[in-house]
Design goal:
Blueprint lengths: L6 H6 L15 E6 L7 H16 L4 E6 L7 H10 L4 E5 L22 H8 L2 H13 L2 E3 L4 E5 L1 E4 L16 E2 L3 H9 L5 E2 L5 H6 L5 E4 L1 H6 L8 E4 L4 E9 H5 L3 H35 L3 E4 L2 H10 L2 H9 L1 H11 L4
Parallel strand pairs: 1-2, 1-3, 7-8, 10-12
Antiparallel strand pairs: 3-11, 4-11, 5-11, 6-9, 6-10
Helix pairs in contact: 2-10, 4-13
The structure holds (2S)-2-hydroxy-2-methyl-3-oxobutanoic acid (X2X).
Length: 334
């Protein structure tokens, strides 16, 4: 029995009693699935968003939120949203790269120096380019405002990571994505691709020694329980495209589509704010949970990627057009 956080399912969660006071079933019931904990801002804002959509459509559209990999890991959920078995799904632009390779470009190592650069790029030409690639290359579309995941940090249970040398021989998990694997190979490790759904147990059973994620995820998914060190590498920024299945969205009349679109984008803007603040404030909380936090030499990592010709390789793969759009925001990377 799957628990969702939609208002309607809460109303029926206590049993099968239907009373006159209960609202009629919605005309359009839509499923939104994701890989994060209920307590992550993504799910808090999604629950609010579902409520607002129900109210503004006068109960005609019900969005059911399935958090925490309840419907499967990312690879599985991606297959489900492609087929229309689920209607909406938030996925890292790098993992989306397993389907539409061009969307990996925003996860380029050390590309964005600040959130000002991130949002200028993603709300500007780079985001538009990526969304266009999604529409052209799949059964999916992406809503305009990408949701935040954040700058990623490395955790492990062996030693603090200060320079790329400290990574030597370490077994690290990365999400499924050619760019992620390539980047950590360039940094000197042989990474293992594992869906987020299996990361906690992979760390617990020492299938891998470490992983990398923003602090908000390390905290809300309790990875501190199975990790000793957290190294502030800021090695890439990551965001979640709010994806929809084109056909299933087109079943909605235009006025309802507009209400859903406005609310998804508005929730995304609030989620961005929450996530940035959380990622900035969590170091103390993680230390209190017993994890040792250290700073890392960002420049040493960037130089290591340059020396491994990582940027040259991906410039070639993405092509001049996409690369020039990226560097318009990030400055020269190689
Ligand atoms: O899989 C991860 O590490 C996560 C949760 O950050 C993503 O969705 C990319």
């Amino acid at each position: 029995f799957l628990k969702t956080v939609s208002a309607a399912s809460l109303a029926t969660a206590g049993g099968l009693h239907f009373t006159q006071a209960q609202a009629a079933p919605a005309e359009f019931v839509m499923k939104y699935a994701n890989n994060l904990a209920m307590t992550h801002p993504m799910n808090i804002r999604a629950a609010e968003m579902a409520k607002a959509i129900s109210e503004q459509t006068k109960g005609r559209v019900e969005i059911q939120v399935y958090p925490n990999n309840q419907l499967g890991g990312d690879t599985d959920m991606l297959a489900q949203v492609r087929s229309g078995a689920i209607d909406f799904f938030t996925l890292s632009s790098l993992t989306l790269g397993t389907l539409v390779p061009a969307t990996q470009i925003s996860g380029m190592g050390f590309a964005f120096k600040s959130y000002d650069q991130v949002w200028a790029a993603l709300d500007g030409d780079l985001g538009a380019y990526m969304r266009q690639q999604v529409v052209a290359g799949s059964t999916l579309f992406a809503f305009e405002k990408i949701w935040d995941n954040g700058y990623r940090q490395i955790t492990n249970n062996t030693r603090p990571i200060k320079t790329p040398d400290d990574l030597k021989g370490m077994k690290l998990r990365v999400p499924p994505s050619p760019l992620w694997t390539s980047m950590f190979k360039a940094l000197g490790v042989s990474p293992t691709s594992i869906n987020f759904a299996e990361v906690y147990s992979a760390l617990q059973t020492s299938i891998v020694q470490g992983q990398e994620n923003p602090l908000a995820i390390i905290y809300t998914s309790k990875l501190y329980e199975v990790q000793k060190y957290c190294s502030m590498t800021n090695h890439m920024w990551d965001g979640f495209w709010f994806l929809g299945n084109k056909k299933s969205f087109e079943r909605l009349p235009k006025d309802l589509q507009d209400i859903v679109t406005a609310n998804v984008n508005a929730a995304g803007m609030k989620q961005r704010d929450d996530v940035r603040k959380l990622n900035e404030s969590l170091i103390g909380d993680l230390k209190a949970k017993g994890i040792q936090v250290n700073e890392a030499d960002h420049e040493a990592f960037h130089v290591k990627l340059q020396q491994a010709r990582f940027y040259d390789e991906w410039h070639k793969k993405f092509g001049d057009q996409a690369w020039n759009i990226l560097e318009k925001y990030s400055g020269k990377l190689a």
